[in-house]
Amino acid sequence: MERIVSTTVGRTGIEEVITLEIREGPPSGITAYREGRPGVEYTADDLTLCLLGLRRELEREGLLLCCQGARRDAVTSGSLKQMTNGWYVYIANPESGTVNPEPVDILAPADPIEVATCDEQRAAVFAFHGLRDRGGEEPHPTGRELI
Questions:
Q1: What is the pTM of this model?
Q2: CB pairs under 8 A, 24+ apart, for 122-129?
Q3: C-alpha distances out from residue 116 to 2, 28, 77, Å
Q4: I need a labelling partner for 37 at 20 to 30 A (CA). Which of 30, 78, 86, 96 fits?
């Protein structure tokens, strides 16, 4: 298991350090450890979906995870997800309409100004591809507290 230390930031500038334990599947898992709280595990078919569950939970508290996978311009492809178990994404350039062919680690640090909520990221990805977002929440993994 790999351990990664990441930072969250609130819209009001509040910062919190979070430690993540990564488990490659199947199923894949991310266990998040926050100060003074038990670990919470997010499991799914791949790490991108685990990260999505963690991010949604943090967003309910007004926090954004400052990682490459939470960037507004992070995009993936089915083949990249399959080859890397969702550990890597591409970074898009909306102005040029291109994607950097070099994938980045979804849990690598990102500048707080680059990250977005899950819904903002979804809208940006749809816009980049010239698609209309029809809404419709897909089921996402939820965390379960570890005892």
A1: 0.83
A2: 124/72, 124/73, 124/94, 125/74, 125/75, 125/92, 127/94, 128/73, 128/75, 128/92, 128/94, 128/97
A3: 25, 23, 19
A4: 86
CA distance 20 to 41: 9
Question: Alpha-carbon distance 25 to 22, whole Å?
Answer: 10
DSSP three-state, residue 63: strand
Q: What tokens were used for 143?
A: 């965390």
Query: Residue 47 to residues 94, 133, 134: CA-CA distances in angstroms?
Result: 25, 23, 25
Work out the pLDDT band at 139, boundaries 50, 70, 90.
Answer: low
Q: What is the gyration radius of the CA atoms in the chain, in angstroms?
A: 15
Q: Bridge-partner residues for 126, per DSSP? A: none
pLDDT bin (cut points 50, 70, 90) of residue 53 is very high
Q: How far apart are CA 3 and CA 94, in angstroms?
A: 32
| Furthest CA-CA distance within the chain | 48
